[in-house]
Each structure stands twice: as structure tokens, then as C-alpha cells.
Write a structure and sequence with these properties.
Bound molecules: magnesium ion
Number of strands: 6
CATH topology of the largest domain: Rossmann fold
CATH architecture of the largest domain: 3-Layer(aba) Sandwich
Order of helices and strands: EHHHHHEHEHHEHEEH
Number of helices: 10
Helix content: 40-55%
Largest sheet: 6 strands, parallel
Strand order of the largest sheet: 3-2-1-4-5-6
Structural class: alpha/beta
Number of domains: 2
Shape: elongated
CATH superfamily of the largest domain: HAD superfamily/HAD-like
Strand content: 5-15%
Length: 228
């Protein structure tokens, strides 16, 4: 095996985050009394993206994002709603909705007996733990590190150090970070000094990346891990 320790991102890499967001956001809006959403989702996506960028830059914690995104949404649309209630509804919904991406379960089934697997996710602890429990993902991973629980996020090397400590300091030369985000997964792996595999199903060929590998399908990963 070329790689014996594999660090996996969760959202958009193994987990169908978009389906989860669709269901959770629709439920949250309905409970807040918005019967006919009109532009709310696009606005929310923009707000969310901007706030998570600030988490990557260390300006905000994941837990702060939970409520701030709904405060901004309420302000923008003049909603008569409570940001804390919406944030809670949304977090509950995210934990309850969404499945593994096609091929992700098969990939984990195949790789878990061959290598040491760890999950390294930027997100809110309650959301991540609800998904992990519901989808029975614990069985695959020797370490699970969620940024919202440890107070530091990818791409910061400190969160990679935390997962490395939990794994008993594996060899960096045989460790691979697998994820969809250039700014958190790939940049973080590169900064920590490990090889990286960018899962980019929709990116155009030749999209710029310093990642060691680029795949468009999860099914390409076992060959990379094996080094064939
Ligand atoms: Mg991701």
C-alpha cells in the first residue's frame, strides 16, 4: 500500500451535504412561517459561504456561524423570526437528513480493512455527530475530529496535529488527505506536509490545484491508496 493512513473530509466528499441542506433549510423556513421562499436559499448560501470562509481564516468559530447566518438572513428579508430557534431547527434538520454520496459506503468498506481511516470535518459538533451516528460511520474510523469540538479548523495545521495525536503519530509520508475543498482540505494537507487527493467531481479539467492527486470519482481512490 502506498498510503496506510487516510484522512477523510465528510461533507461533499463522503456525505451528500446538498441534499441535507435542502431538506433542513426548507423545514427551518416553514417553521419560521415563510410559506413561499423567494430567494431565501440563494441568500443563505452566500451568507453561509462568507461566514465559513471567516472560520477558515480563524476569525469565527463554527459554533458562532450557527446563529449568525440566521441573524443575517432575518435582517436581509425582514423576517419576524428568532435566529436561535431557526439555528436550532436547522442544525437538527442537518443531522436528520442526507445520505452518503453514491460509492462512499463501498469505498469505506473497501479501504477500512486495508488502512487506518480518520474523519476530519469542519463543522458543528452536534450536526456531525448526528450524521455519524445515524449513518453508523464510527465503525470505519480510528479517529474522528470535528472542528466545532476542538476549536480549530482546517486548513490550520493544529487540527491535523490533533488527529495525528489520536492516531499515535503515523508517518506523514504514507498519509493522504482526501477532500473536496481546495481551501480547507488541500491547503491544510499541504501545509501539514502530507499528500493530498482532491475530489472534484464537477471541476473542469485542468482546474488549478497544488493537490498531489485529482479525482472526479470516489472509485478512483483505491488505486491511488494502493499505489498502482
Ligand atoms: Mg467538504
Amino acid at each position: 500500500m502506498r498510503y496506510t493512513t487516510l484522512l477523510f473530509d465528510l461533507d461533499h466528499t463522503l456525505f451528500d451535504f446538498d441534499a441535507s441542506v435542502d431538506a433542513a433549510f426548507a423545514t427551518t423556513l416553514a417553521r419560521a412561517g415563510v410559506a413561499e421562499p423567494n430567494g431565501h436559499r440563494d441568500a443563505f448560501d452566500g451568507i453561509n459561504l462568507a461566514l465559513w470562509k471567516r472560520v477558515e481564516q480563524g476569525e469565527l468559530t463554527p459554533n458562532q456561524v450557527g446563529t449568525m447566518r440566521f441573524k443575517e438572513l432575518i435582517n436581509r428579508f425582514g423576517l419576524d423570526a428568532d435566529a436561535d430557534v431557526m439555528a436550532n431547527d436547522y442544525i437538527t434538520g442537518l443531522g436528520h437528513h442526507g445520505e452518503l454520496l453514491p460509492g462512499a459506503g463501498e469505498l469505506l468498506d473497501q479501504l477500512a480493512p486495508q488502512a487506518t481511516l480518520a474523519l476530519l470535518s469542519n463543522g458543528i459538533g452536534a450536526v456531525a455527530r448526528a450524521k455519524i451516528g445515524r449513518l453508523d460511520l464510527d465503525r470505519y474510523f480510528d479517529a474522528i475530529v470535528i472542528s466545532g469540538e476542538v476549536g480549530v479548523a482546517k486548513p490550520h495545521p493544529e487540527i491535523f496535529d490533533i488527529v495525528f495525536d489520536q492516531l499515535g503519530r503515523p508517518d506523514k509520508a504514507t498519509t493522504l488527505m482526501i477532500g473536496d475543498s481546495l481551501t480547507s482540505d488541500m491547503a491544510g494537507g499541504i501545509a501539514f506536509g502530507i499528500d493530498t487527493c482532491w475530489y472534484a467531481p464537477a471541476a473542469p479539467d485542468g482546474a488549478p490545484s497544488d493537490a498531489t492527486y485529482r479525482v472526479t470519482s470516489l472509485s478512483e481512490i483505491p488505486a491511488i491508496v494502493a499505489g498502482v
